[in-house]
Design goal:
Blueprint: H1 2-16, H2 50-60, E1 64-65, H3 71-88, E2 95-108, E3 112-123, E4 129-139, E5 148-154, H4 162-174, E6 178-184, E7 209-211, H5 226-243, E8 250-264, E9 267-278, E10 283-294, E11 298-306
Parallel strand pairs: 6-7
Antiparallel strand pairs: 1-2, 2-3, 3-4, 4-5, 6-8, 8-9, 9-10, 10-11
Helix pairs in contact: 3-5
Length: 321
């Protein structure tokens, strides 16, 4: 009798097996009050189950009240961040998303999906925060059309950056030495990113060009380089706003390099090579930009060029300010 019971238990174990446990990851890193929006933890595990992928797709199509901490609300709010930077950004004013307070989404017939958002935005240098109400429309239909954004804010852009911007402008407008640098912030080996270009050459001093070492190799940067980093971030917002849709979530991961060009029509001019992190696909995408700036005219992106993919490249390290 004892042997019969033992054999029966073994058979039941083989037939039924152990219970399956599905462990689902969270909805991704939240952009916090003290965390820079482009501080992207690229080394985190991004593998998900097929069930979770289906869940994310369903979340994108949700209507009604949204969970502020989930991807649909955060994706839409980040688009508002990019829009504000294209309107108000400068080397000394870079806006980022602090908190999504509330949000809702609805389908609009023949137009697309409309989001209503209540947000807290923050400036990187002054840490001044403001409350914003935004309406965002992701156009429907075929083709890639930029989102349409309407936003009003209270308490934002109150810090006076005029003196800093004017000093920066006069310094680099009158200088005979054109600024240049690479790998802001942190150094990396260009071996799983989105370009076939070789890694930037070692930083050096040239006769007619002043090149400053930007970082210490651990993600920190010299204070004098922060305006160039922030200008690159603001310029990248023009690309990220244009490329955004309901299936993307963009941040700038790194300025691979920049070079100042000769001033024209009182505009400082720069060639930028930036690395954008698309957090849903975990893809690192390289763009080259021709950027101009002056206190009077603001930031303008005159030319953009998507770089070809590189399948043997390695993503840059996490950003540390």
């Amino acid at each position: 009798m004892g042997w019969t019971l033992l054999i029966l238990l073994v058979v039941l174990t083989v037939v039924h097996g152990n219970p399956t446990v599905t462990v689902r990851s969270g909805s991704g890193p939240t952009v916090g009050f003290n965390r820079h929006p482009n501080s992207v933890p690229l080394g985190e595990d991004t593998q998900t189950t097929t069930e979770e992928e289906s869940e994310v797709v369903e979340e994108v199509m949700m209507t009604g009240v949204l969970n502020p901490s989930h991807y649909p609300a955060r994706r839409a709010a980040t688009v508002v961040q990019h829009y504000l930077n294209t309107r108000y950004g400068s080397p000394y004013r870079w806006l980022f998303l602090s908190t999504v307070n509330s949000g809702s989404a609805e389908d609009v017939a023949d137009k697309g999906r409309k989001y209503q958002l209540e947000l807290t935005m923050q400036e990187t240098i002054s840490n001044v925060s403001g409350q914003c109400s935004a309406e965002l429309l992701f156009p429907g239909g075929e083709g890639q059309n930029a989102p349409q954004v309407q936003v009003s804010c209270e308490g934002l852009c109150q810090s006076n950056t005029t003196a800093q911007e004017e000093a920066f402008y006069q310094q680099h407008r009158a200088s005979n030495n054109l600024a240049s640098g690479s790998n802001i912030p942190g150094r990396y080996r260009a071996t799983n990113t989105h370009t076939t270009d070789p890694p930037p050459p070692p930083i050096s001093l040239l006769t007619v060009m002043f090149v400053v070492s930007l970082t210490d190799g651990y993600g920190h940067m010299e204070p004098s380089m922060k305006p160039f980093w922030q200008l690159g971030g603001v310029a990248s917002s023009f690309i990220m706003l244009r490329e955004s849709n309901e299936s993307t979530l963009y941040n700038m991961a790194q300025v691979a390099n920049f070079t100042q060009l000769e001033t024209e029509k009182d505009q400082l001019r720069f060639n930028y090579h930036v690395l954008l992190h698309e957090m849903i696909s975990q893809e690192i995408i390289h763009w080259k930009l021709l950027v101009t700036w002056s206190p009077e005219q603001g930031v303008q992106v005159l030319q953009t060029e998507l770089q070809p993919k590189c399948h043997h490249c390695e993503a840059p390290p996490s950003t540390t300010n």
